Amino acid sequence: MKELLSQIKLKVDQELYLKDPDSSDLGRSIISKSIEMIDEMGLEKFTFKKLATDLETTESSIYRYFENKHFLLLYLINWYWTWLEYRLVFQTMNLSSPNEKMKIAIDILTREIEQDSDFSYVNEVVLHKIVVAESTKAYFTKQVEH
User: Fold this and answer.
1) pTM above 0.85, yes or no
2) Which residue range forms the structural domain that includes residue 52?
3) Which residue, among 103, 26, 37, 94, has the nearest Cα to 60 in the 3D structure?
4) For residue 31, which of 16, 136, 133, 15 has the smallest C-alpha distance?
5) Residues with Cβ < 8 Å from 2, sequence gap 6 or more?
6) Is 78 inside a domain boundary?
7) 132/130 Cα distance (integer angstroms)
8) pLDDT band per the 50, 70, 90 thresholds, residue 137
9) How many structural domains is the chain composed of?
């Protein structure tokens, strides 16, 4: 069962990235390291140049995945909510009682976030902190075309 769950891929809106970061080791490293760096320094101080230096790659490699850090933030937020949806569906799909489904849904949405071993390259605990601290920046922007 654990092997089957490790093959699950969350579907994030394709308009948020240029190349699917889940499709390569570098892409997964970009996601993992950006979560760590945004948590440490905040979105304002975070740059693709700093990320590239930490990953020992080029800045242009990161730009192949994301147009800018705003789209990276949108991707991370979208990934987080898609992950919560996956947990909700997975834990309630075989239940017929709406009351039982609601109880489980409320529990999932309100319990403390824990690391999910099914997605080893994402630290969901730290990502949750980013969603809480930085998500308003994803929506309060002057250029909202996508």
Assistant:
1) yes
2) 2-134
3) 26
4) 16
5) 117
6) yes
7) 5
8) confident
9) 1
The answer to whether residue 118 sits within a structural domain is yes
- The three-point CA angle 90-22-10 to 5° equals 20
Percent of the chain, pLDDT > 90?
Answer: 79
Within a domain: 146: no
Inter-residue contact 71 to 64 (CB < 8 Å) = no
Q: Write out the H or E segment, with its range, that includes residue 38.
A: helix 25-45
- Please check whether residue 144 lies inside any domain of the structure: no
Nearest to residue 42, comparing CAs of 137, 140, 113?
137
Residues composing the chain = 146
**Between residues 1 and 29, which one has the greater pLDDT?**
29
Residue pair 6/118 in contact by the 8 Å Cβ criterion:
yes
- Would you state the structure tokens that stand for residue 73, as one six-digit string? 């933030």
Residue type (1 letter), 98: P
